[in-house]
Design brief:
This protein is mainly beta. Helix content is about 5%, strand content about 50%. It is rod-shaped.
Length: about 600
C-alpha cells in the first residue's frame, strides 16, 4: 500500500478532491494506513440515512452498499485515540449506547469485503446527543385518552400526533408531560406519538416513535356489590373490547387500592368482616395489565357485609327438630326456611335467637333447613347456604314400666325410622346407660324388691355414636318381686309355699283351671294348703303380691308350678298266726306302692308292690 501511495500522489489528490465534492471530509488526525487505503481506493461510500438520538443512545441507519459484505462503524475520540472501531456488523443499523446527554459525537462508516477488509470510501456524520422525548404511558380517563411522556433534555414543547386514515396528524402542542385527547368515542382504538420541538417550533431531530402507543377507549364498568356466602360479590356488565378488569377497594383514608385482576365480570371478596361496609370500583385493562382502557366510577359501589349464618345442627328433640346457627354480627333477626317437596325454599319462621324449633314434623322424615339474616325492618341483609343442613326427626319413644316376673319390664312404642334404642335408668349418678337394643322392650333384672326405679329410652344410630331422637321424662315404678313358688303333696292335699317378698303386704294364691288363673285365697302367710284336690290329677299354682286391702297388685307373678297329686293310701293291718297283712284301697294315679315298718331305728322300707 505504501508503494502505491508513493507512485500515485496525483491520484490521491484527485481522489481527495473527488471525495470532497461528494461531501466526505477527513480529519487531519487520520493518518492510519487503513484510512489511507480507503482514500486511495476511491470507492463509493455507504449512504448514512439518519443519525438519531434515542432513549437508549444514538442510532445510525444506512443504505446497503453494492459489494459490501459487512460494515465497520467508527467513532472519533478527541483524547488522542482518534478513530476507534465500534462494531463490525452485517446489519444496516447500529446503536451507540455509550453516550451522554449534551455531548457531540462523530461517526464514520465503511464497507467491508468478504474477508473483512475495507472496500469502500468513508462517510462521516456528527450529532449532538440529548435524551429525546419518549412516550411512556397511556390510559383512558373519564373524558378521553391521556398520553404521557418524559420531557426530554432539549425539547421546549411537545407536538402530539394521532394516527388518522391519512397518516399522523398533529392534534396538540404543549409544554406539559401529558395530553388528554377528548375527541374520542367509546369502543374505538386510537394510536399516538410525539415529537420534540425547539424554542422556534422546529423539530429537534428526525427521531420519533413510529409505532407509538395504542389504546381502545372503553366505557366505564358499572359495578354492583352485594353480600354473598363467604364475602361480598361484585358484578358488572361485560364491556365490549375489554381484555381484563382490575378491581379496587377504598381504604380508610378514602384512596383506591388495587385488589385483584380478572377476566370475569364478577369477583368475590372473601377478606371481609361481618358488620362492616366496603366500597369497590372496577377498571378495564389490557390483557397484559399494562394499560387502563377505561376510567372508573369514582363513587364506587358500597355493600355492608353480613355473613350468611353458619348452620351448626338440626337435631331431633322431644317436640320437633331444633335448628341452630352461629350469631352474625350486624344481624337484627333471622329467618328460617325449609326445603319443600318441590325442592325450593319455603319460609318457616323468624326469630332474634340463634335457634328455632320446627314442631310441624313427622317421625321418620328428613328435613332440610337454611337461615338468612335480616335487619330490624326484616329486610334481607345476608345470603344463605344453599345446601342447607339436614335433620331427621324421630319422635321420642313413649315408655311404660311395670313389675315383671324376673325384674322391671320396660316397654316402648316402635318409632318410625328408628334404627336402634338406648335404655337409661336414673341412678345416683343421673341418667346412666343400661343397654342398646333393636327390640322395643327390655327387662332390668338387676333390681331389688321394694325399691323404686326410673327409666327412659332414646333413639340412636346403629353404631351407637349419635342420638337420633330426644327422650321423654322418665317413668318410675316401685319394684316388688314376684314370689318364687313351690308345691308339694301332703297327706291333706297340696302344700303351696313361697318366699317372703320385701314390700309385699299380702299374697294372692292362684290355681290354673279350665277358666285360666283363678283366685284361691289372699293371705299374709307364705304358704297355703290346697285341700280341695283329687288324687291322680295335676295342679298348677302361682302367687302374686297385693296390697293389704286386696285392691291392687304389687308384683307380677312367675310361671305356675305344677304338681301331680296322689292321695295318701288309707290302709288296714291284720294280725295272722305267723304274719301281719297290710291292705289298702287302690289310689287313683298311683303306679306303685311302698310299704314301710316302724322300728327302733325309724321307718324302714320293707316292700315295693303294685298290689293293693
Amino acid at each position: 500500500m505504501k508503494k502505491l501511495l508513493k507512485k500515485s500522489t496525483s491520484l490521491i489528490l484527485a481522489l481527495t478532491l473527488t471525495l470532497s465534492v461528494m461531501g466526505v471530509s477527513f480529519s487531519a488526525a487520520e493518518t492510519d494506513d487503513e484510512a489511507g487505503w480507503i482514500a486511495a481506493v476511491g470507492a463509493s461510500a455507504p449512504e448514512i440515512t439518519s443519525v438519531v438520538p434515542g432513549s437508549d443512545g444514538i442510532t445510525l441507519t444506512w443504505k446497503a452498499l453494492s459489494g459490501a459484505s459487512a460494515y465497520r462503524v467508527y467513532r472519533w475520540y478527541d483524547d488522542g485515540r482518534g478513530w476507534v472501531k465500534l462494531k463490525d456488523t452485517t446489519n444496516l443499523t447500529y446503536t451507540d449506547t455509550g453516550v451522554a446527554s449534551g455531548n457531540s459525537y462523530t461517526y464514520r462508516l465503511v464497507g467491508l469485503d468478504a474477508t473483512g477488509q475495507p472496500n469502500s470510501g468513508t462517510v462521516n456524520r456528527t450529532v449532538t446527543y440529548y435524551v429525546p422525548v419518549q412516550l411512556n404511558d397511556i390510559e383512558s380517563e373519564k373524558d378521553g385518552i391521556r398520553v404521557y411522556w418524559n420531557g426530554g433534555t432539549q425539547a421546549a414543547r411537545i407536538a402530539v400526533y394521532r394516527m388518522e386514515s391519512e397518516g399522523w396528524k398533529r392534534i396538540a402542542t404543549t409544554a406539559g408531560t401529558s395530553y388528554l385527547d377528548t375527541d374520542v368515542t367509546y369502543s374505538n382504538e386510537y394510536r399516538y406519538t410525539i415529537r420534540g420541538l425547539d424554542s422556534s417550533g422546529a423539530f429537534l431531530d428526525d427521531y420519533y416513535d413510529a409505532k407509538g402507543l395504542s389504546l381502545r377507549h372503553l366505557a366505564i364498568p358499572s359495578v354492583s356489590a352485594e353480600t354473598a356466602v363467604g364475602g361480598i360479590r361484585l358484578s358488572w356488565d361485560k364491556i365490549e373490547g375489554a381484555e381484563g378488569y382490575r378491581i379496587f377497594y377504598k381504604n380508610s383514608s378514602g384512596g383506591w387500592l388495587r385488589m385483584a385482576t380478572t377476566t370475569e365480570s364478577s369477583f368475590l371478596d372473601d377478606d371481609v368482616r361481618s358488620g362492616n361496609s366496603y366500597t369497590y370500583t372496577v377498571r378495564c385493562i389490557t390483557s397484559n395489565g399494562a394499560y387502563y382502557t377505561s376510567f372508573f366510577d369514582t363513587a364506587g359501589a358500597t355493600a355492608r357485609y353480613v355473613a350468611a349464618p353458619e348452620l351448626i345442627s338440626a337435631e331431633g328433640t322431644a317436640d320437633g327438630i331444633r335448628i341452630s346457627w352461629k350469631a352474625c354480627s350486624g344481624a337484627s333477626k333471622y329467618r328460617i326456611f325449609f326445603k319443600n317437596s318441590a325442592g325450593s325454599w319455603s319460609r318457616l319462621g323468624t326469630t332474634t335467637a340463634t335457634s328455632f324449633l320446627d314442631t310441624e314434623v313427622s317421625s321418620g322424615k328428613t328435613y332440610v333447613y337454611t337461615v338468612r339474616c335480616m335487619d330490624a325492618n326484616e329486610n334481607y341483609i345476608s345470603d344463605f347456604y344453599g345446601e342447607g343442613i339436614a335433620g331427621k326427626y324421630l319422635s321420642a319413644p313413649a315408655v311404660s314400666v311395670s313389675n315383671g316376673a324376673e325384674g322391671v319390664d320396660i316397654r316402648w312404642d316402635a318409632v318410625d325410622g328408628a334404627e336402634n334404642y338406648r335404655v337409661y335408668y336414673n341412678g345416683s349418678r343421673g341418667w346412666t346407660k343400661l343397654t342398646d337394643t333393636t327390640e322395643t322392650s327390655f327387662t332390668d333384672t338387676d333390681v331389688s324388691s321394694d325399691h323404686t326405679y326410673t327409666y327412659t329410652v332414646r333413639c340412636i344410630n346403629p353404631e351407637g355414636t349419635a342420638f337420633t331422637s330426644s327422650y321423654l321424662s322418665g317413668k318410675s315404678v316401685r319394684y316388688i318381686a314376684a314370689p318364687t313358688v313351690t308345691a308339694t303333696n301332703t297327706g291333706d292335699g297340696i302344700n303351696i309355699k313361697w318366699n317372703a317378698v320385701a314390700g309385699a303386704e299380702k299374697y294372692r294364691v292362684y290355681y290354673y283351671g279350665s277358666r285360666g288363673w283363678t283366685k284361691m285365697v289372699d293371705t299374709a302367710s307364705t304358704s297355703y294348703l290346697d285341700r280341695d284336690v283329687e288324687s291322680g290329677k295335676n295342679y298348677t299354682y302361682t302367687v302374686r303380691c297385693i296390697d293389704s286391702a286386696g285392691n291392687a297388685f304389687l308384683s307380677w307373678f312367675k310361671p305356675g308350678v305344677s304338681t301331680y297329686h296322689v292321695a295318701t293310701p288309707d290302709f288296714d293291718v291284720t294280725l295272722n298266726e305267723n304274719s301281719v297283712t297290710v291292705s289298702w284301697d287302690a289310689v287313683p294315679g298311683a303306679e306303685l306302692y311302698r310299704v314301710y315298718r316302724n322300728t327302733a331305728s325309724g321307718w324302714m322300707r320293707i316292700a315295693d308292690t303294685t298290689a293293693v
